[in-house]
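queue> pop job 88
queue> type: inverse folding (structure -> sequence)
queue> payload:
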């Protein structure tokens, strides 16, 4: 009898499994190759932070965990397919690895451009918003497409050259799958996200990006969110006000928490009145929200050096809070927080759309007192559902890119996309359409856009040269100058916006309504594209209150947030101009602190992205994903081990999250109050 060699598909099952380990070795090489590419890419674009050896070691450890966990899942798919065909199993495995490699490249490029990890917030934006963001950032360049094609070719080449040259016993395949299963079972990957390096940027750099996205996606669609709390917490969490008062936090006494989760008496003190001369008529209020304006690069002690010389000079003539915080890490939170001191909901208050509960806000209450409100934005106000929120709050006039009219120049774009009109054009348009002789009091809110990725502005070359001049003027060391040049487009855009503000105020001073106007300037959040040092850095913004009505200037080192602005302004106007304000409110803010020394009398959540509510500040502490930090007087963070404080912050944060869940299915305020003020 003639023996015919068995075909691969007629082999015993252990023999069928053996190629899995061989393929997995090549998969590991592909992961490491992508990581090397990421480290090289970021070292060129942003520099490798800290100790190179430690950065590389931690990064490879994170990749090893990802390799083991992904191998477990790939093993299940491979094993099932071997019952049909070993060849089919090998082909599918290779295709899946190519797909995962593409994801890794995409996430690496995203992080390299933004310094931000892409997680569940990917699912928080509409397809139109994603297209706008990607398109305005330049889309897919020819160079990037060639790089992606090159990596795909390299991975295919690695598989073709190495797979058949590696001989591994079947037991290795089962062993690899077993170790991967244990890594999944014990959720080892979470450890890679723990802070181990000196800066927040460095910790984010070493995280395996596909693993991070996978965990965030699983959390998102499993029904468990970052806002989830202990369902038995009612048994041991005390009243919000009592919990806070124990550590010197301003207490809030809620009136009917089951029906109205955030309802309380309006007791915000008038802390601004002593600094102002009272005018014969209520003043105009102009709120300037500057995209990405962070304390890292504005103010006399900015750790990156200040790139806002005009804003700095204005602060010296103003009430200036150097340790102010935004409530969100992206723009979605700024309008609800500043105008309404509103809770977040699951993905930001405005994201509730037609389900937004009726509420009181700064525009609505001022409208009841004879004010006219308007919003001006160089981009499209439908982004982040801003226009829907503003209309609900009674803002009758919304001026944005589609309604700008002729005679204005948009910012440079790519592939037909642009964010809209630059800040100089925004301010020019604002001054053109507002009559300086109109005596009706106004609340006007302007949101800028020029300091936004891709940081392409009109007069680009002029401001790139100004950035170089600023590097020299700041007396930076050669190493610091090299580092700053990695972000020259970002710094150029900041200088452009600073000049736009200079021209805006120079023109406004010539108007008769200037003498009865109060200006507030703050950032919507800190620009993330320049790497951050701590978890708090993303929220650290200035607040400047400037007006010809000021009697004296002052600088405050106490911490307050965007939640505190609306209650403070209304308390000031009610106390000095007899405006009618509601006796009970649902503000999350308790008012701006005007203490000169460093302190924090507030307990507030912070929302990094639409999908993440993992940050909480309370007194001198910050909580981030069950890690406790002490906030120093220069707003740096020190990781500490204080179990009692950790328990207290967790309890208070959990109570907020339970209320935040509940208000969406209840009401914020009684109907009688809404009817009176809306």
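queue> result:
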């Amino acid at each position: 009898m003639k023996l015919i060699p068995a075909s691969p598909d007629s082999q015993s099952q252990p023999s069928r499994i053996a190629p899995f380990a061989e393929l997995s070795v090549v998969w590991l090489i592909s992961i490491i190759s992508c990581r090397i590419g990421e480290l090289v890419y970021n070292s060129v674009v942003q520099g490798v932070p800290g100790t190179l050896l430690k950065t590389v070691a931690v990064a490879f450890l994170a990749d090893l965990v990802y390799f083991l966990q992904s191998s477990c899942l790939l093993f299940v798919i491979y094993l099932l397919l071997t019952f049909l065909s070993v060849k089919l199993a090998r082909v599918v495995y290779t295709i899946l690895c190519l797909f995962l490699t593409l994801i890794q490249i995409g996430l690496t490029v995203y992080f390299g451009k933004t310094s931000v990890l892409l997680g569940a917030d990917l699912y928080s934006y509409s397809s139109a918003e994603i297209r706008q963001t990607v398109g305005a950032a330049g889309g897919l360049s020819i160079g990037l497409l060639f790089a992606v094609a090159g990596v795909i070719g390299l991975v295919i080449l690695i598989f073709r050259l190495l797979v058949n040259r590696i001989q591994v016993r079947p037991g290795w395949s089962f062993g690899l799958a077993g170790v991967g299963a244990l890594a999944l079972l014990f959720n080892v990957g979470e450890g890679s996200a723990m802070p181990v390096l000196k800066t927040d940027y460095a910790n984010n750099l070493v995280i395996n990006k596909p693993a991070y996205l996978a965990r965030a996606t699983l959390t998102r669609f499993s029904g468990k969110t970052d806002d989830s709390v202990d369902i038995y917490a009612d048994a041991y969490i005390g009243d919000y006000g009592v919990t806070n008062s124990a550590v010197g936090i301003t207490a809030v006494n809620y009136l009917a928490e089951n029906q109205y989760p955030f309802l309380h008496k309006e007791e915000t003190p008038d802390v601004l009145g002593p600094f102002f001369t009272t005018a014969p008529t209520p003043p105009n209020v102009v709120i300037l929200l500057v995209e990405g304006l962070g304390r890292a690069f504005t103010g006399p002690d900015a750790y990156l050096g200040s790139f806002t010389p005009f804003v700095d000079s204005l602060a010296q003539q103003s009430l200036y809070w150097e340790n102010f915080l935004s409530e969100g890490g992206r723009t979605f939170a700024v309008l609800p927080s500043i105008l309404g001191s509103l809770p977040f909901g699951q993905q930001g208050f405005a994201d509730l759309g037609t389900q937004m509960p009726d509420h009181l806000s700064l525009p609505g209450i001022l409208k009841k007192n004879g004010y006219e409100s308007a919003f001006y934005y160089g981009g499209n106000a439908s982004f982040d559902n801003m226009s829907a929120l503003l209309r609900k709050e009674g803002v009758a006039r919304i001026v944005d890119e589609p309604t700008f009219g002729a005679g204005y120049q948009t910012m440079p774009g790519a592939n037909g996309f642009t964010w809209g009109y630059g800040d100089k054009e925004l301010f020019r348009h604002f001054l053109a359409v507002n009559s300086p002789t109109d005596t009706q009091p106004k609340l006007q809110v302007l949101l800028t856009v020029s300091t936004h990725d891709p940081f392409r502005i009109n007069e680009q070359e002029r401001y790139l040269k100004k950035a170089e001049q600023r590097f020299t003027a700041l007396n930076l060391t050669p190493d610091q100058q090299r580092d700053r040049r990695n972000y020259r487009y970002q710094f150029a855009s900041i200088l452009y916006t600073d000049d736009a503000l200079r021209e805006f105020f120079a023109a406004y001073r010539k108007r008769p309504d200037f003498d009865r106007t109060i200006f507030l300037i703050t950032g919507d959040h800190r620009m993330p594209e320049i790497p951050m040092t701590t978890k708090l850095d993303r929220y650290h913004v200035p607040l400047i209150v400037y007006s010809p009505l000021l009697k004296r200037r002052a600088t405050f080192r106490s911490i307050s947030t965007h939640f505190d602005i609306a209650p403070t302004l209304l308390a000031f106007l009610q106390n000095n101009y007899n405006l009618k304000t509601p006796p009970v409110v649902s503000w999350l803010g308790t008012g701006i602190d005007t203490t000169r020394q460093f302190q924090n009398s507030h307990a507030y959540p912070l929302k990094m992205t639409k999908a993440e509510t993992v940050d909480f500040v309370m007194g001198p502490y910050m909580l981030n994903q069950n890690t406790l930090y002490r906030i120093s007087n220069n707003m740096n963070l020190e990781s500490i081990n204080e179990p009692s404080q950790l328990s207290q912050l967790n309890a208070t944060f959990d109570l907020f999250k339970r209320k935040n869940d509940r208000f969406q299915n209840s009401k914020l305020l009684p109907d009688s109050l809404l009817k009176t003020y809306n």
